[in-house]
Design a protein that fits this description.
Layout lengths: L1 H22 L6 H28 L5 H5 L2 H27 L1 H8 L12 H29 L5 H8 L2 H15 L8 H21 L8 E13 L2 E8 L11 E5 L7 E4 L9 E7 L3 H4 L1 H4 L5 E8 L12 E7 L4 H10 L9 E7 L6 H11 L4 E7 H4 L4 H6 L7 E6 L2 H15 L3 E5 L6
Parallel strand pairs: 7-8, 7-10, 8-9, 10-11
Antiparallel strand pairs: 1-2, 1-6, 2-5, 3-4, 3-6
Protein name: Ferric reductase
Pfam family, one: Ferric_reduct
Cofactor: FAD
């Protein structure tokens, strides 16, 4: 994510710098030159980053392979949007500062505006008004996205307005860009960004995101193996392409509520049947067992994700760590490995649960591992023995041996393990994690 954002910012700054070097900074006084060039650079950065965020929102084909997972694509979408809002705010503040500069330094040193036709002048006035209005709304939406207590069901509907706001800002950028830009690298970059972002926005407004990867079906079973867990099994139609153990999908049980990402907790048996273990983490998932019933229609989009057995390093010791409902991808792994136990890697599965004696997943894990002698199950009961730490995990394994950790669970737990295990293994360990944080 960071290299991609850094590269884009550097590309935009380079195109702006090229235009500055070729055409000069202008003939105005220094304050007005800084004001004008600051407007250009901040505007270019804002619209380029917002275009990237818009494209990432459409879940384009191949992005997972390029970035290493859909979770990384969504993090890129999120931070591109945040940075875009930051540069848009700077752009707006600079625009508002012209009265201050005029008061202190006068208007004599201000550069002349482009000499444009009456039609374009009218469009520029409209673009300026639309851009200012859209910036206010974009900033409000970024704040709501970062405010985790704001209900997802409301945020999701508000977020649907983002493509409209993008088109308003794209119009603002297109009509207010200096006419000389369109024959320079900055103009070419702007044209590419606006074209890609506009296509993505229209695609989103048309409801086409993920449409080619959707399958319809019905719910065939609903149960509650634990107090806060709902197990749902669905049978899908012929549009389902199958999945790899460990992947996830966007599942829609109710069109008003919309799609939610859930890990597929079962292996692909070739019968287009998929199972989900859904933990009560919010209002929607808490009420899910009472909202759905056998025979109900369901739409599943996917599969997505790179948390796959096939990506394991067979030469490294496998350490699998699950926290709570993070056990779901490993359930799918074990289910898939039962078809060919001899192909199962030498692995240690660490399952962290609050109450091991009452956890229904413990019995299921024990049953699955009985058929897989190369997989050793470790159940860590946090109520009795405290939370699993990186130091404790390191004592259970040979840190001199190259290892690969696959983790699924709470983010804070992952960060604690990642940093601690990196110190213990000293460069001989790889840490894999998918973070299903879609806002």
């Amino acid at each position: 994510m960071i290299p991609t954002l850094t590269a884009l910012i550097a590309l935009v700054a380079g195109a702006w710098g090229w235009d500055l070097a070729v055409n000069g900074a202008g003939s105005g006084s220094v304050p007005w030159v800084v004001y004008e060039q600051g407007l250009y650079l901040s505007g270019l950065l804002a619209i380029a980053l917002m275009s990237l965020a818009m494209v990432m929102a459409t879940r384009p084909p191949g992005v997972e392979r390029l970035l290493g997972g859909m979770d990384r694509a969504y993090r890129l979408h999120k931070w591109a949007g945040i940075l875009a809002a930051g540069f848009a705010s700077l752009h707006w503040l600079l625009e508002m500062s012209d009265d201050v500069i005029e008061k202190w330094y006068g208007e004599a040193g201000r550069g002349a505006d482009d000499n444009v036709s009456g039609v374009l002048d009218t469009l520029r006035d409209a673009g300026e008004e639309l851009g200012e209005f859209a910036i206010y709304l974009v900033l409000a939406m970024i704040i709501l996205a970062l405010w985790k207590r704001f209900p997802y069901k409301f945020w999701r509907h508000i977020h649907r307005a983002m493509p409209v706001l993008y088109l308003m800002l794209a119009f603002h950028a297109a009509v207010l860009a200096p006419t000389a830009y369109w024959s320079e690298p900055a103009g070419l970059l702007l044209a590419v960004a606006l074209s890609a972002g506009t296509v993505a926005a229209v695609w989103s407004l048309a409801g086409r995101i993920g449409r080619g990867r959707q399958a319809r079906g019905i719910v065939t079973a609903v149960s509650s193996p634990a107090a806060e867990v709902t197990e749902v099994v669905c049978r899908l139609d012929g549009n389902w392409r199958g999945h790899q153990a460990g992947q996830f999908a966007f599942v829609t049980f109710n069109r008003i509520e919309g799609a939610h990402p859930f890990t597929i907790a079962s292996a692909d048996q070739g019968d287009r049947s998929v199972g989900f273990q859904i933990k009560a983490l919010g209002d929607y998932t808490r009420e899910l067992s009472r909202r759905i019933a056998v025979g109900q229609a369901v739409t599943v989009e996917g599969p997505y994700g790179r948390f796959e057995l096939a990506r394991q390093d067979r030469k490294a010791r496998q350490i699998w760590v699950a926290g709570g409902i993070g056990i779901t991808p490993f359930l799918a792994w074990l289910d898939a490995l039962r078809a060919s136990p001899a192909a199962a890697p030498l692995a240690d599965l660490h399952y962290c649960t609050r109450a091991g004696a009452d956890d229904p997943f413990v019995g299921r894990l024990e049953t699955l591992c009985q058929d897989l002698p190369s997989v050793t199950l470790h159940v860590h009961d946090t109520a009795r023995h405290g939370a699993l730490t990186a130091e404790r995990l390191a004592t259970l394994h040979d840190c001199r041996q190259r290892a690969e950790v696959w983790f699924c669970g709470p983010r804070a737990f992952a960060e604690q393990l990642r940093s601690g295990l990196a110190r213990a293994w000293r460069g001989r360990l790889r840490f894999h994690q998918e973070a299903f944080d879609m806002r």
